[in-house]
Amino acid sequence: MIESMHVLAVESAASTGGVGILGPKAQVELLTPLGPGWGEVLPKLVQEALSLARLGWEEIGLLAVDIGPGSFTGVRMGLSLVKALAQVRGLPVVGVRQTEVLGLPWAAVWPGRVCVWIHDRRDYLYMAWVDPGRAGREAVLTFSQALPKLREHPQVLLVGSGAQRFAAELREQAPEVVLAPEPFSVPRPLVLAQIARAKYNGEGSCDVLALEPHYVHEEG
Length: 220
What we know:
By secondary structure, the protein is α/β, with parallel strands linked by helices. The protein has helices spanning 41-53, 72-89, 98-107, 143-150, 161-165, 167-173, 189-203, and strands spanning 6-11, 16-22, 27-33, 60-68, 93-97, 113-119, 125-131, 134-135, 139-141, 156-159, 178-179. The protein contains seven helices and eleven strands.
């Protein structure tokens, strides 16, 4: 169990990313916009978060990283940083999907179905259903393909960047679907840390060398 140590989480799968530290002595979260040329920002945020938390590396027991789906460059940037830190510091790593970061907190409290839509820059959506404790497999769909699937279930709560991208269309064509508030469309480092800690306590560490981005491809 890792409850007595701190988790350091790096989130870079979306347009807003950051670093979080979660543990018995400190809870810190730093967020920043991400885009071209921002690769040097995340290592600086790691150091800043440690400084704000007043922690040394010896008090970090686990590293967490969002492996996607999401920004191709962002996911690889965060994963490269975490893998380097793991090897230099000798720390275990847990990879978490963005679908889990966005959907699992809602699935624990929402009485109906929870669905995640992550917007791809080509106007495709990564869509997955999330149940308490488990996020399903993502599918790559257009809006017109994904919308009927939402309407098959009552009391659907939709979360993610795709929900915000198509908010106007959803309110017009599927007003029965509840959209999570916009701030919850961004995966948060502290939520990533919480999920990674639970995964580590239940399943152990990932193989750092084998850990790769979670890419989702169109079927057919």
